[in-house]
Amino acid sequence: MDELELHKMTTLRPYVIGLGLRESTTVFGIVDALGNILAKDCVHTTDYPDPTSFVFDICDRLQPMVEKVGGWGNIKAMGIGAASGNNITQRIENAANLSWKGNISLASMFQGRLGIAVSLANDCTVAAMGEMAYGAARGLKDFICVLVNGGMGAGIVLNGLIFMGHKGRVGEVGHVTLYPDGRPCTCGKVGCLESYVSRRGIVQTTLEIMQATDTPSPLRDIAPKALTVEDIARCADEGDPIALQALHETGNTLGHAMTAWASLVSPEAFVLVGEVNSLCGKHMIESILEGLNENMFDALKWSTKVYLSTLRGDEASILYASALAWQTKEYDILL
Ligand SMILES: [Zn+2]
């Protein structure tokens, strides 16, 4: 294939596929160069006992979606954002929050089945790419994306470039020990930041506040095992003091952790992303700023902004992964 032919093939492909693999649900869609999602679908990640059945089913679901946009010849590449994704090996490695254990070469499994280039990176890393392309980080050169959902972690951009980390597992801040005698974590340790700042962390904090006080709250009508972050966010929206206290404590804990990250990197901003931040971020942002600056070295106090992403829900996950797809080289597959 000569260079002109290669150029034509690579520039005439107007769409990419973005796939966001999360603990509970996986969302995927076809995206154009302006960030419009032309088609999308979702599955329950937990329905698949192994990654092979997951890949086969999603490929089947993609087929009619791709035909509607003119076939596989119009698809440049596929990007995957995944919890515990390694940016360099492009595998999911020993995910604490997935039922699939060990190392999973999801990108090469999709690539083998679909015949297009497929890249995989950490969900926090692709969130940073997506926020830079479509969201709150447009124009920023130094920032840290803080993703909070079932788990939590960070994506880092320095000098306008994604920081990949020496061995590809950058931003694993969720499993830094915060309290050596704290809550047990899904990773097997105790007292990790993620045990406090995550879906399960917020629920646990809310239950502890309810146990320690007599303050009336509609949250007391919900069985503890059925309590969700959605319930807590809804009650916080209505001014419930228990829900607001839980989110204040969560924000403050996160802010204190961010002091060290800001001191190390001196970013222009933190960008809060992920479902928990979408649901609860507006109630946490002041507490995050307080926590971030309370113990900050004077020369750096109040120098780092905190933005809440405006990209929401499933569409955010698809767009984030699509930003990785646009940066994926297809030459290896074409030649
Ligand atoms: Zn942990």
Key descriptive features of the protein:
10 helices, five-stranded mixed sheet, 335 residues, binds zinc ion, alpha/beta, Nucleotidyltransferase, domain 5
Any overview of this molecule?
This protein has 335 residues and is an alpha/beta fold. The chain folds into two domains: 147 residues, Nucleotidyltransferase, domain 5 (2-Layer Sandwich), CATH 3.30.420.40; 173 residues, Nucleotidyltransferase, domain 5, CATH 3.30.420. Helices cover 40% and strands 19% of the residues. The protein contains ten helices and twelve strands. The strands form three sheets. Strands 3-2-1-4-7 form a five-stranded mixed beta sheet. Strands 10-9-8-11-12 form a five-stranded mixed beta sheet. It has a two-stranded antiparallel ribbon with strand order 5-6. Helix 6 packs across helix 7 and helix 7 packs across helix 8. The mean pLDDT is 93. The protein binds zinc ion. Zinc ion (ZN) binds next to loops.
SS-based class: alpha/beta
CATH-defined topology of the largest domain: Nucleotidyltransferase, domain 5
**Residue-averaged pLDDT, rounded?**
93
The level 1 CATH classification of the largest domain is Alpha Beta
Distinct ligand kinds: zinc ion
- The proportion of residues forming helix, as a percent range, comes to 40-55%
Please count the beta strands (DSSP E, at least 2 residues each). Answer: 12
CATH superfamily membership of the largest domain: ATPase, nucleotide binding domain
Approximate shape: globular
Give the low-pLDDT segments. none
Number of helices: 10
CA radius of gyration is 20 Å
User: If classified by CATH, what would the architecture of the largest domain be?
Assistant: 2-Layer Sandwich
Calculate the terminal CA-CA distance, rounded to whole Å: 7 Å
Q: Strands across the major sheet, in which order?
A: 3-2-1-4-7
Specify the oligomeric state. single chain
Count of the domains: 2
Biggest sheet features: 5 strands, mixed
